[in-house]
Amino acid sequence: MLVLGIESSCDETGVALYDSEQKLVAHQIYSQIELHALYGGVVPELASRDHIRKLPLLVDAALEEAGKEYSDIDGIAFTEGPGLIGALMVGALYAEGLSYALKKPLLGVNHMEAHLQAVHLEDEVPEYPFMTLLVSGGHSQLVLVKAFGEYEILGDTLDDAVGEAFDKTAKLMGLPYPGGAKLAKMAEEGDDKAYDFPRPMIHSGDLKFSFSGLKTKVAMTIKDSTEADYPNIAASFQRAVIDTLVVKTKRAVTEYHVKSIVIAGGVAANKLLRQELARVMEPMGVRVFYPRPLFCTDNGAMVAYVGHERLMRNQGSLNYDVKLKARWPLSTLSSKQESEQE
Ligand code: KG4
Ligand code: ZN
After folding, report:
1. What's the 164 CA to ligand 1 centre distance in angstroms?
2. What is the pTM of this model?
3. Domain span including residue 156
């Protein structure tokens, strides 16, 4: 079965083709980052318009890359939420049109499930059950993955997501949007012990996160500093965030006795986070898995993969009653059917 995956929930247009035997056969991505950087954040209306411009071209390019024709496509998967409604609409309408023209089943995929399952695009994959630390621009969650489609959210953020805290802090230091990766790069030049920033909620005994207090503390420090101090601030901030993530993840792994941990979402591209989790988990006999950096941030391959798994389970349809979702909690999914509309 050859599945076309389409991602358009935010500022990346992603398209990929996933085949039952050959696995990932094409992967095309166009990032709108430069477009939005001018405004210091994603402008939803501009995002939608740019998805319209790029999506058909990327599908053509993906088919050419794989040496396939439109008629070879057996099913179409698109991101149905969570995300920006206007941006999601572009992918959904394109997918509906193609499904109708080809008479091939259509399926809406949950963007967070796609991030969480992206690790299956790699050669080495964890066995179920596993723990996932899902950290992106919009989410910071610890999720127990019991089986494909069976997700239990154990802890969430009370305020800012990790990626959001990285981006906002980076912005205060004058780094262009989205500053997360650039802040991480700057941190390599700094001393992570220069500032003693708080490790939020590490003694709370639960699996919840909160980053707004830390962000405020760092913002005050930046205000009283000069540019020469920025690398040290970046390094100390990054260390505080990662220490917190590691403490909570260790607690989750211990409480739920899992043998594998997956890091997923855009912040999973962070090198220090990967290193530190591996260092702490190894002595516990727990293996750490993560997608290659390209598949940590938004992409079509993760959508094609989840689409393939679900379309193989006959969950696609030719009824075009798509209801896009700005919010769509993972806990409402199941391995058998798509979640009820919210
Ligand atoms: O998953 P993603 O592409 O989009 C969402 O679904 O939110 O994640 C993007 C987030 C941004 O906040 C970005 O700054 C952050 O991931 N990010 C990083 C790194 N690379 C991307 N944060 C810290 N360190 C990185 N190396
Ligand atoms: Zn994402």
Report:
1. 8
2. 0.95
3. 126-290
